Amino acid sequence: AVISVSRAADTFVESIMGSDFKAKRFIIPNAVDTEKFKPPEREPEDNIILFVGRLVYRKGLHVLVKALQRVKQRDYKLYVVGGGYMEIPVRMLAKAYGVDERVEFLGVVPERVKVELYRRAKVVVVPSIFNESFGIVALEAMASGRPVIASRVGGLEDVVIDGETGILVEPGSEDQLAEAI
Questions:
Q1: At what angle do helices 61-68 and 87-96 cross, to 10 degrees?
Q2: What local confidence, expressed as pLDDT, does residue 14 receive?
Q3: Which end of the chain has a smaller Cβ tally under 10 Å, C or N?
Q4: Distance separating the N- and C-terminal Cα atoms of the chain
Q5: What is the rounded CA–CA span in Å between residue 14 and residue 164?
Q6: Which candidate, 2, 3, 11, places its Cα nearest to that of 155?
Q7: What is the DSSP code string of 107-159?
Q8: Alpha carbons 25 and 4: distance in angstroms, whole number
């Protein structure tokens, strides 16, 4: 038997194994610890936008930073949690777009800090542009009672139901991302 975490992951497995692959296939989504990831006791006062993920091109942080200049409300702060090769280019992009004062790179943080950051966020954004097999960040955010804006890509479409459990935007669309925020 072959187990995949989403329809997107199952399609990927099929592309490797071929459609004549005879094993039984099951989709069993990931889960999160709802004792750890749970809503805050009261809504956060600060307008924190949270990005959690590896700082790699496909995660779309650069799209989010470009979208920030279009966000009408200006009293926000973007917290970026994670590390990777895109940090320096995204820092330069934030400066070029004039939003660097509102973007804070926190690096890789301990799990307990990440849990608390979810609770402090007004919204969690998952702007992936391709190859997202599941989207555990979206699930952690929802378990933490936070609104989610995610790209309509891969397994994120299984996790986020547009208009019900979050907002889905087209991958790479700065305009849609800004409007959703």
A1: 10
A2: 86
A3: N
A4: 41
A5: 30
A6: 11
A7: ES--HHHHHHHHHH-SEEEE---S--S--HHHHHHHHTT--EEEES-TTHHHH
A8: 8
Report residue 50 as tokens. Answer: 């949270």
Per-residue model confidence (pLDDT) at position 62: 98
10-residue stretch averages of pLDDT, the chain, 181 residues long = 91 84 88 95 95 97 96 92 98 96 97 97 97 93 97 94 95 97 95
Q: Can you read off the two tokens belonging to residue 78?
A: 């973007």
SS3 state of residue 100:
helix
Q: What angle do CA 58, 107, 46 make, to 5 degrees?
A: 95
Rounded CA-CA distance 106/148 in Å is: 20
Between CA 148 and CA 45 the distance in angstroms is: 17
Contact 125, 118 (CB under 8 A): no
| Contacts within 8 Å (CB) and 24+ apart, 109-114 | 109/81, 114/52, 114/81
> Residue 73: its pLDDT value, please?
82
Radius of gyration, alpha carbons of the chain = 17
pLDDT, residue 113, reads 98
